[in-house]
Task: inverse folding
């Protein structure tokens, strides 16, 4: 009987869910008071990418009108704030229902967006791009957001033509602009949420030189398919630089100020594209702060002190020829994966291992054979790593050469000005991880959400030497990937 | 006694551990089994669960002892229900199974059936994405076997409203499974 199979599957749902449902629901008035989420634990911070196109000296564009575009962002409804709905002792039930409905509606829109594409569509790009972006930084912390860069490169494809665009489409793994636009709209929608629990805010902007002519329809297209705002101002002026910094800081909750404080446009800049991601998530089960201890992190250049968070629980342990790995689930959607290279293997070397990249791009539990349900004694150092990458060379190695070449770059969809070419690609990321989060009562965690039969073996998994991490959003695509050499 | 202390007793192979879980979680596990099975069978099932826990801990070191024991009890109860079915005796589980037929996705166009484990993972994902109240209601009904009447009383609504709400949840689960291309 098929419903028995469903019944068996329900038996094996994650233990924290079972535990949560053990007690009866309190009647609405009381229950509502418990609805508010608490602080964030994995604050993956803002990252900005800056693509700057420089005008070749002596070729200025003509002055045109000042019409700039603003995007209309996808709807993101807040999780109901019950304290705001209290009327004396009672909760405004109809308002509460309304807010629930709105929240659920927004969530289902994200699910529908997520279901409109598959991870396979981005596989070609991710497989090539992740090692290229993070390579060449031996011994340093490095992090990137492959999806954020995907959107930035897609915007670049939108503003270029000819060989410049063809190379970008080839890297992005799409046949034509229509497919790319549709994919980007859905990627954006699936990863755009700020409901008081999850936060994953993407933003993009295009910055134009004051004297430059531009094509309104392209700016409209950027606003529609890439949610990009347009600005136009005097390059090289303190005011315009300040506006750039202010925009990035606003999109990233002021958490990249260290990286943006010296950010300024080169006076010769014709246009710049910026994209950002501000991401915060709660661990499914928090680390207990009292278990965090001083420990040594065996970095390449010698031991470094770190704060090691500890947790023991059953979960899935994954392995490959050169690594072991675990997943930590976020409370609502997504997860964070940690890959510990075998002794003697560096994270950078692991990035060159096709098997490790395949694992990074797998969903883990469902499509990775080498896994086992075990008791995992996890040690994870608290870390707050910042990374500022210049990606011109990486992109050239990935086949994006025409847009960088003043002789071949073709920005005709955006401007009639001649001699515009891409000169810089900057990418800043900050990722901070700690044990904060839920209340002390929820101390159970499941790694990989296996939770099937009780495990019959144990494994120590202490990330006390350089490791790789990846953060996945609702769509199971790597929103961030990084290397921690110094926590 | 705290759960950590009970687990230590298990690890020391001290039989007091069984007395402690029986004292602390006997009622909880009895409810789980009792919602699926006739009373006598439920009691036997809970006793079997204590034995299974004794065999499992160590090496298992559950972070959440209550849910851990609950799961063992439920697995045993389902297994016992199946053998009772063969003898044409049954309990509350038959009704739950017939309700769950609402969740079965349309199999057309799907070539392979999904493994139970994968299905559990999908259901966990689906449950986590639900508002807390819906999530808890679904599990109280289909994991703990709480009756619709009791759930309605817990939430302060009518039985009819609760039945409709449960139906909406079952349909939502079916749609989700269909979206994922699942066949059972």
Result:
């Amino acid at each position: 009987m098929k419903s028995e199979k469903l019944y068996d599957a329900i038996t094996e749902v994650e233990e924290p869910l079972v535990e949560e449902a053990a007690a009866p629901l309190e009647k609405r008035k009381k229950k509502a008071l418990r609805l508010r989420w608490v602080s964030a634990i994995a604050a993956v911070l803002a990252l900005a990418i800056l693509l700057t196109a420089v005008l070749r000296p002596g070729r200025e564009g003509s002055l045109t009108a000042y019409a700039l575009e603003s995007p209309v962002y996808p709807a993101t409804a807040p999780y109901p704030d019950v304290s705001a709905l209290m009327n004396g002792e009672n909760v405004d039930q109809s308002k509460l229902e309304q807010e629930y409905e709105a929240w659920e509606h927004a969530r289902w829109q994200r699910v529908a967006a997520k279901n409109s594409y598959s991870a396979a569509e981005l596989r070609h790009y991710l497989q090539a791009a992740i090692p290229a972006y993070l390579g060449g930084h031996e011994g340093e912390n490095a992090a990137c957001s492959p999806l954020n860069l995907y959107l930035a490169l897609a915007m670049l494809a939108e503003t270029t033509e000819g060989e410049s665009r063809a190379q970008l489409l080839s890297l992005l793994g799409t046949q034509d602009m229509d497919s790319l636009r549709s994919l980007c709209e859905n990627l954006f929608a699936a990863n755009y949420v700020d409901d008081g629990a999850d936060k994953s805010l993407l933003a993009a902007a295009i910055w134009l030189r004051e004297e430059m002519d531009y094509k309104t329809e392209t700016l409209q297209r950027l606003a529609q398919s890439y949610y990009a705002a347009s600005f136009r101002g005097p390059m090289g002026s303190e005011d315009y630089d300040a506006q750039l910094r202010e925009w990035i800081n606003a999109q990233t909750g002021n958490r990249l100020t260290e990286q943006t404080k010296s950010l300024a446009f080169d006076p010769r800049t014709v246009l710049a594209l910026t994209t950002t991601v501000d991401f915060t998530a709660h661990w499914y089960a928090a680390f207990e702060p009292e278990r965090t201890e001083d420990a040594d992190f065996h970095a390449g250049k010698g031991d470094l002190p770190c704060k090691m968070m500890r947790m023991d629980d059953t979960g899935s342990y994954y392995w490959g020829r050169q690594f072991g790995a675990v997943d930590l689930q976020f409370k609502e959607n997504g997860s964070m994966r940690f890959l510990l290279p075998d002794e003697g293997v560096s994270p950078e070397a692991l990035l060159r291992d096709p098997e490790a990249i395949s694992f990074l791009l797998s969903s883990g539990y469902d499509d990775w054979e080498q896994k086992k349900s075990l008791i995992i004694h996890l040690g994870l150092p608290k870390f707050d790593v910042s990374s500022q990458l210049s990606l011109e060379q990486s992109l050239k190695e990935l086949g994006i050469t025409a847009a960088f070449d003043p002789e071949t770059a073709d920005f005709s969809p955006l401007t009639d000005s001649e001699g515009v070419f891409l000169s810089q690609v900057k990418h800043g990321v900050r990722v901070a991880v700690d044990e904060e989060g839920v209340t002390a009562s929820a101390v159970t965690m499941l790694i990989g959400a296996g939770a099937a039969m009780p495990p019959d073996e144990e494994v120590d998994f202490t990330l006390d030497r350089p490791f790789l991490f990846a953060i996945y959003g609702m769509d199971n695509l790597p929103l961030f990937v990084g290397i921690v050499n110094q926590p | 006694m705290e759960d950590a202390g009970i687990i230590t007793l298990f690890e020391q192979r001290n039989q007091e551990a069984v007395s402690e879980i029986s004292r602390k979680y006997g009622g909880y596990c009895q409810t789980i089994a009792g919602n699926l099975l006739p009373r006598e069978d439920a009691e036997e099932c809970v006793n079997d669960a204590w034995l299974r826990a004794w065999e499992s801990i160590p090496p298992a070191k559950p972070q959440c002892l209550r849910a851990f024991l609950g799961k063992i009890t439920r697995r045993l109860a389902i297994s016992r229900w199946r053998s009772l079915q063969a003898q044409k005796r049954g309990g509350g589980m038959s009704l739950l199974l017939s309700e769950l037929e609402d969740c079965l996705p349309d199999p057309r166009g799907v070539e392979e059936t999904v493994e139970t484990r994968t299905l559990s993972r999908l259901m966990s994902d689906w449950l986590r994405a639900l508002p807390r109240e819906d999530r808890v209601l679904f599990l109280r009904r289909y994991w703990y076997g709480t009756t619709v009447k009791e759930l309605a009383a817990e939430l302060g609504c009518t039985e009819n409203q609760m039945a409709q709400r449960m139906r909406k949840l079952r349909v939502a689960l079916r749609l989700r499974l269909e979206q994922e291309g699942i066949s059972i």
User: Anything to note?
Assistant: The mean pLDDT of chain B is 81.
